[in-house]
Design goal:
The chain has helices at residues 34-71, 77-111, 115-127, 133-149, 153-167, 174-190, 194-216, 221-229, 233-254, 258-272, 279-294, and strands spanning 2-4, 10-12. It has 298 residues and is mainly alpha-helical. The protein has a two-stranded antiparallel sheet. The chain is elongated, with a radius of gyration of 26 Å.
C-alpha cells in the first residue's frame, strides 16, 4: 500500500497476512459418550482386578515355595535366589499389568469419544506417576490432546507445564514431549499468546529433531523394530517438524519478528518436502510459500 509522507514523498508498506488456518483447530463441543464412559470404567476395573488376582496368586505361590526351601536342611540357596528373582519379576509384571489396565481403557474411551472417562482415567494414571513414570507421561499427553480438542487450552497448558517440570526435556521422553510441546505451542497461539507459543514450538522442534536423528540412525532395538515396521516413520517426523516450524513462524510473525519467521517458513518447506504426500503437506507448503513471497523484503 502506498501513502504520501509528510514531505510529499511516497512511502510503501508491505502488508503481510497471517497464513489462513494458522493457530486454529476444530473444537469438539459434543457431550461425552455416556455408554462409552461406563464401558471404559468397567474395562479398567475388570483388567485391574484380574491383574491383581493373577499377581497376588503368583506372590502367594512363590512365597510358599520359598518357605519350603528355607525349611529344608541344608537350605537350597540357589532355589531361594531364584525365588527372590521371581518375586522381583512378579512386581514388574504387576506394574505393567496395572498400566495396561489404564492404557487399554483410555484407548477405548478415546476411540468411542468418551472424553469424560478418558480424562478421568488419565488424571488417575498421572497420580501414580512414581509407579509407572513412562506411562504417566503418555497419560499426560493423551489428557492434553483431549483437553485441546475440547478447547480447554488453559487446563491443557497447566498439565503440560507440570509434565515439563518433571521431565524437563529429557531425551528419553522425546516421543512424548515432542507432540506435547507442539500442541501446547498451538494452544498458546490460539489463545493470543505468541511469545510462550514460540517457547513451546522451539521445544517441540528440538525434541522432534532428536527423534528424527534417532529414526534415521536407529541404535536401540525398539527403534530399529519401529523403523522396520513403519518405513515412512522418518517422513512422518519430517511432517511433524514442518508443522512445528510453520506454527513457530506464525507466532514470530505475530510478534513482528519477520526474520525468524522467514527462516522458520523456509524450514517448514524443507521438512514438508521430505514428508509423504498428504493434504496437510499440501496446505503447509502452499501457506509457507505464500508467506515467503510476501516476506521477501523483510
Amino acid at each position: 500500500m502506498a501513502k504520501p509522507s509528510a514531505n510529499g514523498k511516497v512511502r510503501t508498506r508491505t502488508v503481510v497476512k497471517t497464513p489462513k488456518g494458522a493457530g486454529q483447530f476444530p473444537v469438539n463441543t459434543q457431550e461425552s459418550n455416556a455408554v462409552g464412559d461406563r464401558k471404559a470404567r468397567q474395562l479398567f476395573l475388570a483388567i485391574l482386578i484380574a491383574s491383581f488376582v493373577l499377581v497376588a496368586g503368583g506372590v502367594a505361590w512363590i512365597g510358599w515355595q520359598l518357605t519350603v526351601l528355607l525349611g529344608k536342611t541344608p537350605i537350597d540357596w540357589v532355589g531361594v535366589g531364584l525365588g527372590v528373582v521371581a518375586l522381583a519379576l512378579t512386581f514388574f509384571i504387576g506394574r505393567g499389568l496395572a498400566w495396561f489396565s489404564f492404557f487399554s481403557a483410555i484407548m477405548y474411551a478415546s476411540r468411542v469419544k468418551a472424553w469424560e472417562s478418558q480424562e478421568a482415567l488419565c488424571r488417575s494414571a498421572i497420580k501414580f506417576g512414581k509407579f509407572f513414570p513412562g506411562g504417566a507421561a503418555t497419560a499426560s499427553l493423551m489428557l492434553i490432546q483431549s483437553l485441546v480438542s475440547r478447547g480447554q487450552t488453559a487446563e491443557a497448558i497447566k498439565v503440560g507445564e507440570e509434565l515439563w517440570e518433571r521431565l524437563g526435556g529429557n531425551p528419553k521422553h522425546d516421543q512424548t514431549l515432542a507432540p506435547m510441546c507442539s500442541m501446547l505451542g498451538l494452544a498458546h497461539q490460539v489463545s493470543g499468546e505468541p511469545r510462550p507459543s514460540i517457547v513451546w514450538n522451539e521445544r517441540a522442534i528440538e525434541s522432534f529433531t532428536r527423534v528424527l536423528e534417532d529414526v534415521e540412525r536407529p541404535k536401540g532395538l525398539m527403534t530399529k523394530l519401529a523403523v522396520k515396521q513403519s518405513p515412512n516413520l522418518a517422513g512422518s517426523v519430517h511432517m511433524q517438524l514442518a508443522v512445528s516450524y510453520f506454527n513457530n513462524a506464525t507466532s514470530h510473525f505475530q510478534q513482528m519478528n519477520y526474520r525468524p519467521a522467514k527462516e522458520s517458513f523456509k524450514k517448514a518447506v524443507e521438512h514438508a518436502n521430505q514428508a509423504p504426500d498428504s493434504q496437510e503437506k499440501v496446505e503447509v507448503l502452499k501457506a509457507s510459500k505464500e508467506q515467503l513471497n510476501r516476506l521477501k523484503h523483510h
